[in-house]
Amino acid sequence: MEAPISNASTKRIAVVTGANKGIGLEICKQLASHGIMLDVADSSSVSSLANFIETEYGKLDILENGFDIFKKLLEVAQETYEKAEECLTINCYVMKRVIEALIPLLQLGKSPRIVNISSIYGQLRFIPSASIRKNMDEIDEKTEERLDEVLQSYFKDFKEGKLKDNGWPTPYATYKLSKVAMNNYTRILAVRYPSMCVNCVSPGFFKTDINYDLGMSRSKKGLKAL
After folding, report:
1. 3-state secondary structure at position 123
2. CB-hemisphere CA count at 13 Å for 210?
3. Would you tell me how many other CB atoms lie within 10 Å of the CB of residue 62?
4. Plot region of 172 (φ>0 → left; ψ -120 to 50 → alpha; else → beta)
5. Given 57, 172, 175, 185, which residue is catalytic?
6. How many Cα atoms are found within 13 Å in the side-chain-facing hemisphere of 137?
7. Helices 81-88 + 173-192 axis angle, to 10
8. On the CB side of 144, how many CA atoms lie within 13 Å of its CA?
9. Active site residue 193
10. Cis before 128 (ω within 30)
């Protein structure tokens, strides 16, 4: 969703991804009551979005990444390699590309912040392997390279049917790993851009179509803190 902005330099500009339904949509509704936001859930080009924001507003203040792929609980337990690849691509690599494309605009913003919507499944305790946990927990100059190596190792073990033997999280292995990777990348960004407020947030177990409305409450009640 787009709207014209007057005096853009005095307004706070936000981008919300994954806003077609659920938590992302509710964040959009709450942001819209306070200012202007852009819903890029259906954007065909991240670069064109960045160009649009630069041309129209000249900066970006808030980037909220709420998009991910997590099929309904009963479906994701029997994922194929193709679905696993799709999940990690969207939840990790696409998120990273969006952030990298918009970082220059965020650096021009007022008190810029990045909020990545994570999950309780993003906790390291869900990964049985101590070596994988160690690689996903350390933050140094080689962290990003090491993160990619971990994801590639996961793909290899998935193809060979060795997920359980090699200590990957089960069930919902790919989704859990994607959220752990998101948390790790968020920490990388926080170190790399100390002038920005960079966080990942687990909003809680809300009622959505993913969990067949079995959550504790509707997203509207629990997202005001975001």
Report:
1. coil
2. 18
3. 21
4. left
5. 175
6. 11
7. 20
8. 12
9. no
10. no
Contacts of residues 205-210 at CB distance under 8 Å and 24 or more positions apart, as own/partner, are 205/120, 206/22, 206/23, 208/21, 208/22, 208/23, 209/21, 209/22, 209/72, 210/22, 210/70, 210/71, 210/72, 210/73
- Two structure tokens written together for 69: 């792929």
Q: How many other CB atoms are there within 10 angstroms of residue 81's CB atom?
A: 11
Q: Tell me if 90 sits within 8 A of 65, measured CB to CB.
A: no
Helix axes 130-137, 173-192, angle to 10 degrees: 30
Q: Where are the domains of the chain?
A: 8-222
Structure tokens that stand for 32 in this block: 């819209």
CB atoms within 10 A of CB 138: 13
pTM of the model: 0.77
Tens digit of each residue's pLDDT (9 = 90 or more) over 87-141? 888 888 888 888 999 999 999 998 899 999 888 889 999 999 999 999 999 888 7
Residue 52 corresponds to which amino acid?
Answer: F
Q: Is 62 helix (H, G, I), strand (E, B) or coil?
A: strand
Residue type, 198: V
Contact 177/169 with Cβ under 8 angstroms? yes
CB 183 within 8 A of CB 118: yes
Please check the confidence at residue 17 and state whether its pLDDT lies above 80.
no
CATH 3.90.226.10 fits 8-222, yes or no: no
